[in-house]
Design a protein that fits this description.
Length: about 350
């Protein structure tokens, strides 16, 4: 994995939509994937037609990304089969969608899976089912199939016309920038080492394995305000932390809560056996999406925008806009899982 991010003078090179295939610097390309026009109907308060019919399902899952597919897998394993996954895009996967050229498949977003810690019981179970984890060693630690492991992954940044190691823009950084980076890293280390009386971490993966309520006041603060409150004003540090927020949540410093932003840095711990190695595939996490979707085809409905979910009677009703048909309908279910 040779992840590389290109910045020019600290500013990301502009991306253009598919309507403008030439960004003007000789590079052909554009943003693909999201049907932003469909999604913006929700944001802009579009008046959807009244649902003309009602269907029934046991469980309605909104969103066919990794979270929705994981929920479907869990339901399947518990013997619940009467669910439907409603996905606004024309394909499932969300941030873990992938594409393919005549040469190779490739990821659009998420491209690797950090090795799951012992708390990530479900992820390890899934990887065992797939043969990615081959067995456990005598200490009960997973032994991975080497084929799926990327050893010694490196991340690089293209800045001021050359490549540098790591994502923090060291090239041209001042002493103040580096001092703030060191102070930031020390604080993230403290969060990583923090344990409550029961030995639980504050920032764990999955979140449910963490100490309930620890540092949750950070959820009422944006990551931007958190950085400001610590005096971390370095533009380079802010760029680096914003990169992390975009990488995990697709949102900037202003839109990411301080709890979530810290989670990026404090939740990951090197595996005792494999260090910082990661799992990856040519299509990135799209490989996992394809495996998770196996056997679900009849219950996945792409091109369906859920524009309203509300309790009705003892259950719930989801109102859905069929993007291709331009029509609306409702799905009444015992429960809804919002994975969007
Ligand atoms: C650029 C980027 C790179 C990343 N790289 C990695 C990585 O390398 N490794 C990693 O582990 N994680 C990575 N992540 C984190 C990644 O987001 C998660 O790993 C995972 O893919 C998120 O899955 P999700 O299902 O929670 O959300 P999403 O992937 O966002 O899925 C939500 C789904 O819900 C759909 N939806 C939204 N609203 C509606 C609606 N109203 N009606 C119907 N459907 C709706 C969306 O279209 C989408 O398909 C990355 C994230 C980003 C943004």
């Amino acid at each position: 994995l040779a992840g590389g991010v290109a910045v020019a003078g600290g500013i990301l090179l502009g991306c253009r939509g598919p309507d403008s295939p030439d960004p003007g610097n000789g590079t052909l390309g554009g943003i693909v994937g999201s049907s932003h026009k469909t999604g913006h109907r929700l944001r802009n308060g579009y008046e959807f037609p009244r649902p003309a019919r009602t269907e029934r399902a046991g469980v309605v899952i909104v969103g066919g990304g990794v979270a929705g597919l994981a929920a479907a897998r869990r339901l399947n394993r518990s013997g619940v089969r009467d669910f439907v996954i409603l996905e606004l895009e024309d394909a499932i996967g969300g941030n873990s969608r992938s594409g393919a050229s005549s040469v190779t498949p490739y990821p659009w977003g998420a491209h690797y899976l950090p090795l799951p810690g012992g708390e990530a019981v479900e992820v390890r179970r899934f990887l065992r089912d797939l043969g990615v984890i081959e067995k456990d060693d005598r200490k009960g630690r997973p032994v991975y199939n080497e084929r799926h492991i990327c050893h010694a992954p490196q991340e690089r940044l293209f800045i001021h016309g050359r490549w540098q190691e790591g994502i923090f823009p060291h090239t041209g950084a001042s002493e103040e920038d580096l001092a703030q980076l060191a102070s930031f890293r020390e604080e993230m280390d403290r969060y990583r080492r923090w344990r409550d009386g029961a030995g639980r971490r504050a920032f764990a993966i999955p979140r449910s394995a963490g100490s309930p309520g620890a540092f949750r006041d950070r959820d009422r603060l944006s990551m931007a305000r958190f950085l400001a409150s610590r005096g971390w004003s370095s533009q380079r540090l802010r760029w680096y932390v914003e990169y992390a927020c975009r990488d995990d949540f697709g949102a900037g410093l202003e839109e990411t809560s301080a709890w979530a932003g810290v989670h990026y840095f404090a939740a990951r711990e090197p595996d005792p056996e494999y260090g910082d190695n990661v799992l990856t595939w040519p299509e990135g996490n799209g490989w996992l999406v394809a495996r998770m979707a196996e056997g679900l085809q009849d219950r996945v409905r792409p091109g369906q925008l859920v524009f309203n979910v509300e309790p009705v009677g003892g259950g719930v009703r989801a109102d859905v806009y069929d993007v291709a048909g331009g029509t609306t309908y409702s799905v009444e279910a015992r429960e809804a899982i919002l994975a969007c």
